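Example (one chain per record):
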Amino acid sequence: MEDLNRIILLGRLTDNPTITDKYGKFSIAVNGYKKDDVSFFNCVSWMGPLNNILSQYCHKGDRIAVSGKLKQNSWTNKEGKKVSDVQIIVSEIQLLSPKKDSVSTTTVKSNASPIFENELIYDNEIPF
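Predicted structure:
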């Protein structure tokens, strides 16, 4: 079996993403099981389309899902001490709900499946 380096996180943006012509940087806060258990993750995206979406639609407090791989960086700082950090190299993002919207896409449940924008087909209307 091959090794696997894959991570999926759902959380909120801690600040507006920083976008350059080569990469995008942002961090997300993910709540744990306890009230004060919050983890912060630094994310980097290298793809142009992802950075376009981040710059146009993602703002501080918005809820997003990211998937990608973990990358550990290590270096020697100015004091000569070896330090390291872990980043998420983002390959996909999914926009969930903005902070001001109290209903997220992960909690909305319906027996309807949208086929077209203004048309819904309910499960009990399907003839098979």
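Caption: The chain has a mean pLDDT of 79.
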